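User: Structure please.
Assistant: Input sequence and predicted structure:
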Amino acid sequence: MMDREKLRTKLQALCRELERQEQISEVDRAPVELDQTSVGRLSRIDAMQVQAMALANQRRRQSELQRVKAALDRIDTDEFGYCQNCGDPIAPARVEHNPAVTTCISCAS
């Protein structure tokens, strides 16, 4: 049997960590300065690559944060631990590994 409160705590900690990472990476997502007198062309290209990676990471974090918040909502509505496709219970080991999982192994295949 799954310990929902333990999983809730794990999800809340993951949510806080994702939000913390979002704040840390804010500087990397800032627009790149185009003034060639202060930044050389290669440095600007590097900065643009860093910005692009930071934006991609932001999208990934936001997607993960949505999955985590949805899992917290499912815990509150007693839909947690059931496959959203077929309605069957999700294997406890699968939920323990990733509490934000939404499908059973059969539907995920």
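The mean pLDDT is 85.
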